[in-house]
Design a protein that fits this description.
The complex is a heterodimer of chains A (312) and B (372). Chain A has 312 residues and is α/β, with parallel strands linked by helices. Chain A has two domains: 211 residues, 3-Layer(aba) Sandwich (Rossmann fold), CATH 3.40.50; 88 residues, Alpha-Beta Plaits. Chain A is 38% helix and 27% strand. Chain A has twelve helices and 14 strands. Chain A has a six-stranded mixed beta sheet, with helices on both faces. In chain A, strands 2-1-4-5 form a four-stranded antiparallel beta sheet, with helices on one face. The longest helix of chain A is centred in the middle third of the chain and has 16 residues. Chain A starts with a strand and ends with a helix. The mean pLDDT of chain A is 86. Chain B is an alpha+beta fold. In chain B, strands 1-2-3-4 form a four-stranded antiparallel beta sheet. In chain B, helix 5 runs parallel beside helix 9. The longest helix of chain B has 39 residues. The two termini of chain B are 35 Å apart. In chain B, 34% of the residues are buried. At the A-B interface, helix 2 and helix 3 of A face helix 1 and helix 6 of B.
């Protein structure tokens, strides 16, 4: 049995509209983020993964399970969708409890599991209230509770941080990390790039239905060798250092940081540039710290698909 | 595995019951199920009032009359003879009328004559006799036969076949079964079922059972109430004779059975229609037309219909009125009935076929609410 989530040459068309095209992915355990603007194919990939839609071409396999084998697939998979609708008239508790009963759990175990997961998402106080009266954040959390209720090995979360306040966001992020730390596969979609940047082990960058890059953020960054790397150098005399840096053949652009306490440099060969900086520091040039300034997913995304789409 | 499936079906039924029984958009189903009950209750009240009036007439009569006594009065009899036969009328009206002296007289110089008119009202407790007299001679007789269970059972059969079966149950099943999947697609909540570790066929079976439970409860209750209302106004003795000696009980049981089979058959039809079509109006109209033209279809095509089998099971034949065009007679009577076991098997066959088609469709179904 495979230990990966596999997409093999997967395409999905909604009539003549492209959902995703020629997707090949092999997703390992940990937190994987699907990143892209609206309409880039994130939800389609998640729906393909969970069998809610079927590929027009290609094959999707989740840890060895076919996606049309719902009976077995959803024993190991939980999906918190973006659909903000619930069966009518249910309380938060009943929503999670009914799902567990539907999964075949007996009354006692369903009740136990439901309360346990409701506690995990911090909704105990409001669990007996009708979902119709929930705020957006509460609805988001109860959906997450349903997806987590049966301790799935694969957790698919479509825009899970939408509508959550900062405190709830950090709680949820901690929850995703804890789940991933147990060896689970956590797939998160988001168009808020800095959010997934800090929590992801891997990213899959999507644009207009195509996977434009995938892997660890640093690896993805490394794949784009031809694009300049931006480096932030903290120092007390940025203007003097800027003049020196411009003499270096590896430097292609220098700018003084807006706080006047450092430089932003661009280079095509980061490795050689770091070595050169080390030499300069040894020769008495005052440098406080060096850090990659664009090794985040936003920068990578900007490089790949252009700034306009990335910030859309 | 079967135990798990059964537990899952029960879980689906529990979730669906709330929606099928208490949905606001399903209130009209209760209304159409209640219509024939209201009709029979109104009929029972009207008949009871008549019965009460007859009892008053009987209590005021000089002697106890039989139906045969009422039939002895003939036109042309003098009033004395009528009174000799039936006694002094318990209710008598008299008035003076003016009419032309002869029918063929010229209207310009006609002469009017006075006619002494009377009306006698007799009753044997079940039937009314109205005797119209002109100048002390019987001019016309109106023997109004009161209701009896046997005769009224034909009215009951008519209401059952032409309203309850073809319209109430038909549209009730349409409202409930078509919404089992379609309603949830419109509410964007169907994915809740499709994301659970349960076979989609099991979800379909659970939803079908929930729909069946709802329609059977609503329409069987309506049928029971109709039967009670239909029999309620008859004297206890007439009820006993009808129920135990004239197959009344047997007919009531058959009507209940036909109601259940109708819910099963139409339920399966509308379940598959709800899965195949986005707009329920078109398949509903198509099925309604298909069921209506059933008597005119060739034998082989007739078998792919629910009404064909249900009509064969109905216990009372509705006679066509004299002079009814042959085309209409075809609609009323069942010219080509099948035996009860074949009819029951036929409905189950059609149902299984529809459920099989539903299971194929539900397996193929994709969740894409934006295109709905």
């Amino acid at each position: 049995m495979s230990d990966r989530i596999l997409f093999e040459d997967v395409s999905k068309f909604y009539g003549e509209i492209l959902g995703v095209n020629r997707v090949n992915l092999s997703i390992p355990p940990g937190i994987t983020s699907l990143v892209g603007p609206n309409g880039s194919g994130k939800t389609t990939l998640m729906n393909l993964m969970t069998g809610l839609v079927r590929p027009t071409r290609g094959r999707v396999e989740i840890l060895g399970y076919q996606t049309d084998d719902s009976e077995n697939l959803f024993k190991i998979l939980g999906y918190s969708t973006q659909f903000d609708a619930f069966p009518k008239g249910l309380t938060g508790f009943q929503f999670v409890y009914s799902y567990l009963r539907l999964a075949g759990r007996d009354r006692e175990s369903a009740e136990q599991l439901a309360w346990r997961v409701i506690e995990r998402v911090n909704l105990v106080d409001t669990a007996q209230r009708n979902i119709a009266g929930y705020s957006k954040g509460m609805r988001q959390r109860i959906r997450l509770a349903q997806a987590l209720a049966h301790d799935p090995k694969v957790l698919v979360l479509d825009e899970p941080l939408n509508g959550l306040d900062p405190l709830a966001r950090s709680e949820m992020i901690a929850l995703f990390r804890a789940t991933a730390a147990q060896g689970c596969y956590v797939i998160i979609s988001s168009h808020i790039l800095h959010e997934v940047d800090v929590i992801s082990d891997q990213v899959v960058l999507l644009s207009n239905g195509y996977v434009v890059a995938e892997g660890q953020i640093s690896t993805v960054r490394g794949e784009i060798q031809e694009h300049p790397t931006q480096i932030l150098i903290r120092c007390n005399h940025p203007r003097e250092l800027a003049a020196k840096m411009l003499e270096n053949e590896l430097t292609i652009e220098v700018a003084i940081h807006k706080d006047e306490r450092g430089l932003l440099l661009k280079t095509r060969d980061a490795d050689r540039f770091y070595l050169a900086l080390n030499d300069m520091a040894l020769n008495g040039v005052d440098i406080e710290s060096i850090a990659p300034a664009d090794d985040d997913v936003l920068s990578v995304y900007e490089y790949l698909i252009g700034n306009e789409e990335a910030v859309r | 595995m079967k135990r798990l499936w059964w537990a899952q079906i029960k879980a689906v039924v529990r979730l669906e019951m709330r929606k099928t029984f208490f949905a606001r958009r399903g209130l009209w189903i209760y209304a159409i199920a209640a219509l024939p009950v209201i009709l029979f209750v109104a009929y029972a009240i009207a008949t009871s009032t008549q019965q009460h009036r007859r009892a008053t007439v009987v209590s005021q009569s000089e002697r106890r009359l039989t139906y045969q006594d009422l039939q002895t009065v003939k036109p042309g009899m003098p009033s004395q003879e009528v009174i000799a036969l039936l006694g002094k009328p318990p209710i008598r009206f008299h008035w003076t009328d003016r009419q032309p002296a002869s029918a063929d007289q010229n209207p310009e110089n006609e002469t009017m004559v006075e006619v002494q008119r009377e009306q006698y009202h007799y009753s044997d407790g079940q039937n009314d006799l109205f005797v119209e007299l002109a100048d002390d001679k019987v001019e016309s007789i109106n023997l109004g036969e009161g209701s009896n269970p046997r005769q009224d059972s034909i009215v009951f059969a008519g209401v059952f076949q032409f309203f309850f079966l073809r319209l109430a149950i038909f549209f009730g099943c349409l409202g409930i079964f078509m919404n089992l999947f379609r309603g949830e697609i419109l509410d964007r909540s169907l994915h809740f079922y499709f994301l659970a570790p349960v076979r989609r066929e099991v979800v379909m079976a659970g939803k079908f059972l929930a729909g069946l439970l709802a329609t059977c409860t609503i329409f069987v209750t309506s049928e029971v109430l109709q039967t009670i209302a239909f029999l309620w106004h008859f004297p206890a003795s007439a009820r006993v004779v009808y129920l135990y000696h004239n197959h009344g009980l047997e007919h009531a049981a058959i009507y209940l059975g036909v109601t259940l089979l109708a819910c099963i058959g139409y339920g399966a039809f509308f379940l598959v229609a709800g899965l195949l079509f986005r707009n329920p109006i078109l398949p509903a109209a198509a099925i309604l037309i298909w069921e209506s033209i059933n008597p005119f279809l060739p034998g082989i095509l007739k078998q792919f219909s629910v009404i064909y089998y249900l009509k064969s099971l109905c216990p009372v034949d509705i006679p066509s009125a004299p002079g009814t065009p042959p085309v209409l007679s075809l609609l009323i009577s069942n010219s080509d009935p099948v035996s009860a076991p074949v009819a029951v098997l036929g409905i189950f066959g059609v149902t299984l076929l529809a459920l099989y088609a539903s299971s194929l469709q539900v397996r193929r179904m994709q969740i894409n609410y934006t295109t709905e």
